[in-house]
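Hey all, sorry for the wall of text incoming. These are the two entities for the joint prediction.
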Amino acid sequence: MATTTIKKVLLLGSGALKIGEAGEFDYSGSQALKALKEEGIETVLINPNIATVQTSEGVADQIYFLPVTPYFVERVIEKERPQAIMLAFGGQTALNCGVALYQSGVLEKYGIQVLGTPVQAIMDTEDRELFVEKLNEIDVKTIKSEACESIEDAARAAKELGYPVILRAAYALGGLGSGFCDNEEELYKLAEKAFSFSPQVLVEKSLKGWKEIEYEVVRDRYDNCIAVCNMENFDPLGIHTGESIVIAPTQTLTDSETHKLRELALRIVRHVGIVGECNVQFAFSPDNEDYRVIEVNARLSRSSALASKATGYPLAFVAAKLGLGYGLFDLKNSVTKTTTAFFEPAIDYVVCKIPRWDLGKFRGVDREIGSSMKSVGEVMSIGRNFEEVIQKGLRMIGQGMHGFVGNKELTIDNIEDALKAPTDKRIFVIEKAFFAGYTVDQIYDLTKIDRWFLNKLLHIYNINKELRTANINTVSTDLLRTAKVYGFTDFQIARALRLESEMDMEKAQMVIRERRKQAGILPYVKQIDTLAGEYPAQANYLYLTYSAVAHDIRFDHDGRSVVVLGSGAYRIGSSVEFDWCGVQALNTIRKEGYRSIMINYNPETVSTDYDMCDRLYFDELTFERVMDIIELEAPKGVIVSTGGQIPNNLAMRLDAENVKLLGTQARYIDNAEDRDKFSAMLDRIGVDQPEWAALTSMEDINAFIQKVGFPVLVRPSYVLSGAAMNVCSNQEELERFLTLAANVSKKHPVVVSRFLQNAKEIEMDAVARDGEIIAYAISEHVEYAGVHSGDATIQFPPQKLYVETARRIKKISKQIAKELHISGPFNIQYLARENDIKVIECNLRASRSFPFVSKVLKVNFIEMATRIMLGLPVEKPSKNVFDLDYVGVKASQFSFNRLQKADPVLGVDMASTGEVGCLGDDARKALMKSMLSVGHRIPKHTVLLSTGEGKHKAEMTDAAQMLVANGYTIYATPGTYNYLTEEHIPCKRVYWPEEQGEPQVLDLLHRKEIELVVNVPRVQSRSSVTNGYKIRRAAIDLNIPLITNARLASAFITAFCTVKDADLEIKSWQEF
Amino acid sequence: MRKVKLQLDNGTQFEGYSFGYEASVKGEVVFNSAMMGYNELLTDPSNAGQILVLTYPLIGNYGVPELSTEANGLSSFMESESIKVKALVVSDYSEEFSNWNAKESLADWLKREQVTGITGIDTRELTKTLRDQGSMRGTILFGTEDEELDIRADIPNPVAEVSCKDVIEYKAQDYVERSMDGSSPTPSRPLGKRVVLVDCGVRQSIIRSLLRRGVDVVRVPWDYDFNTLSFNGLVISNGPANPTLCEVTVKHLQQYFQTSEKPCMGIGLGMQLMALAEGADTYKLKYGHHSHNQPVREVGTNHCIVTAQTHSYAVAADTLPANWEKWFINMNDGSLEGIRHNGKAWWATQFQPDDTASTTAIGTNLYDDFINNLK
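and here's what came out:
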């Protein structure tokens, strides 16, 4: 049993979601906190990510929305005096912070015990040289590499090892600053970047083409050790595991091979001295049983979250218990509840993880995937064969694909090149290659993807081919069943049978559905029980498959269950905030005595933790699959308003099949989503909106623009996060973009609207019942309109809003709520110039800012909305924003450092990967905390100003003066220099990259003589390599903080010039 | 592929497709939840005569290695020279295979050895049925029931069937550990010790584990009176079926325990036979252990190991004589997984003490322990 007498534990979170460190740490942290709570231990959590589940009421006892940095953590320790700390649950951020605190003696000073894996063991795995030494001690082979501390040294090492080599920055998350170099020139380029992230860079021989295998291992303090899960990468070594399709368990390894790797993994974990959870990555030869250990992660990781979901074994929960001193034998298997936690799950299904990229959202980004992670999310599919899971997974990714086959034609210039140089589209290139007659062997030679996987893909291709030889009248029941077993949707079958030419695809899909139902081809529900059916289990963790003849569970059909549709893959524009909403809905449903049913497939989330609901369907959110589940469950109703746009988009079709939607009815959702209908409604009730027109022909648009003038905002209906939305400033941009947008959606018209400049953007998040607003929150963007609301810095309560503006917004919102009969959550975005207010968008669902406003206001909007949707009474909250004597500021986290070559500018298309929300006694303090939380640092001496157009220059004048008054040296690019000089603000001129003269701005950046870059782009243009781009990109690549918006820069400069570190309150959420 | 039917004795039917040899068969239907190792399971004599159901759905992925034998007569990669099960039942047979060491497909192998193989079965549903019913017999039928002419019958005593027929000697000096990773092969260092292995259906990895450690192995048939031989230690192997069918072996063991002081080690069925010889009872488990992930704990310690097992019978703990003690316990159902004698170097485990994974609380491997005790 645990011998610990610990009463109070500090847990570090991972901060904002970023590429390489995302939702998985909300899941691990939440599990750890649950494990601690069960022991009656008081918990203190530091995590500025306000949208997470772990920072919700009741999950931790004290929650600090503060940066996870040594300074703030020490302040919290000083105040809270915890006896122990847990470092393994907040990703690399928490681990690095913990190591720093250990090394600086802070942990010792306050007598704090590190629970779980000792810090020395962590350091042994993080420092490459120590790591190699450690593994040499037990005869375990590592990749031959050399730790270098200078670029020259790296070049020498590479020469000795022989190209190709891989470069890795030590202590960096998710392969940041790493990559392959085929020659010296490439090495110099990459090494400079890598050294900007880390003082140590590792040069190693590349093993491109080897298999990549991972093990998730758990060890307790009694040296009991288990390998919970192994996984095989579909993509060969060379593609970061976060970028690779991953299959669990391994598929192409023999018994002897898996035993060998398992034994090695256990040996390593024992020798390193892990207590808790650990990930071991192997490179494995495709030609014999030779191997190399790639790396060991002495903490919960993206892979461990995946392994937990893949097996049903709650790794983080168990790891937390082991950290408290339990033995594995003390703990129970949380699925069976009767058998022990000391076991290795037996899987009787196959699991596939596919990364979700959003590279299309970035200007100029390099689309090739490789040793550095670029994906922003992932999905996991479960099935009984590989073909099924890969097809399910490709649909789950949510980029318009229907599976491996049956997709819109992909244009590939050269298949061979596309196979050789993998991009985010690589798997679809394989389908094209089959079509072009490539054999499995040829594709293997080009991709090094194991032939087994390729043969399975070929199987899918062949089934599709067979379907295409039939038609709806001739297709056999056997073939239909085969197609369903191997993961074809009704849509794919309809397309293969060419029903498209006869009818609308939505209808065609229903024709197939009816046809196969009549033939008795139906999916069955299977459990994930960790023991492959060997022992009886009451598992509520479920998936559907056609490779079955019976259900594992029974359906009660008592009308006491409520289905909540989840939010799918994390992507830019939809991430942890919707997971929070989903979890709050589930909690409320349970609390009110209903059974909660979740459908979702994102392994990074808390909503896909089977503890969170009564039944978890880890399956697709396609219309087809959702209908399958609804038909089986016959629930009281379905909630579509807490999972973002995916469920929202299903509303109409579900309604058409007479599915009971809880909350706002489908036709009103449509009235808000369909711009035409929505605008007509606004006109009818006399609410103003920017002038707009629905596009059907080029002549119409030109006429419209003649009237309103450029710039215009162009977007199709049904958009989220600015997909296919753009501001066009001239005729050429407009024409190019329209071809693009029209491709995106044929069904809904494209809308062109006048783009208002220098307008404030204001958000209304609210909950209504039968058209009456019950609770609301008005918040204000720091930036002017034009920066996507997902990228904007938002303050709540609003700080600079006229009372009259607020009153009008409230009034208009009331009107809209009434008109749309809203019952549940909704969000309206407004533009305001003076007191002139226009509606830009209305969503009859929870928005991204719901967790933020709920937590700042301390009123749970989703709980309230869910009660309303369940038909339960709610009371209007007694307090309103004017009662708050503090401010919340939400700031965005960007991951441009991961996205090579991408231009780090903000526009109407969303680019941020995460966000934080911090509280302060005033807006400046809250902003400071938020900015520090997303990786900004306060400059000590120097700032570069390059402030674009005249109006931005003017906006920045006060801030520039303040910098000077506070002793900063301002460097300025020519135009800004002239402006500042005229304003009598002393500054030093720097030269553009394309100018002659000294000092050159890029040199200063490379020499780290500039600590903050403010670069406001001139016009929003698509033109690629400008001077501005070079400065912005250099700042990102050299890890120098960058701000590209004048209003935000002013606010931040004002904040750090007037507030000192010591003034930043160390107050928990509860204390505000 | 030809459609086939699997019919359980309780009347439940499953429909699938044939991918192996086309012959109707009858036998005990058992499942195994191991995710890897179909080649090893098929050739494991402990599974002799059974219709083996694999709960892991994707089978055949890495093909079948060359069915070669080494100079000493042992199979290079398998647990015995041939497939021991009567039929294989899977959910999704993988027609294409991929592994550097594969020489042929699983289907080709099954056909050559005339073993039935069926795919497309909901093996999870089948497993749940088998689990709830205990074990059950079943028939795989090609064509209609009326046509079932040549259903290959049950084996009365599978141990007799799978045991070797003659004494075979393996010399440690001849043993060379095959290298799988491109490094040079490792020859065994002979210790000059001789171990008698009673073959009740031995998995050849046991023989390899002994030879690797430098002892000579004398493999004798299950009913051979090893008491007549001179040797340094005794190993009773694993094997199929009900231990009470091996009365002869039990009798020989009784004599051994009365007359010998030398070390004795039992594995699987071997443990049950040793227990019977010392007067304990065996019984049939409600849920047999057929997996690679059985958790066991060493009694009186905090030491646990994950083990691979295949057995439906167990030793009744409360019938152990006074001079024997419970050594390992199954952490899921509490059944006895290991026993040892107080005083003498006699012990046995239900699980496979194969190499690195299985250790005692003090961290030593069970084979090493056994060999260190040889005098």
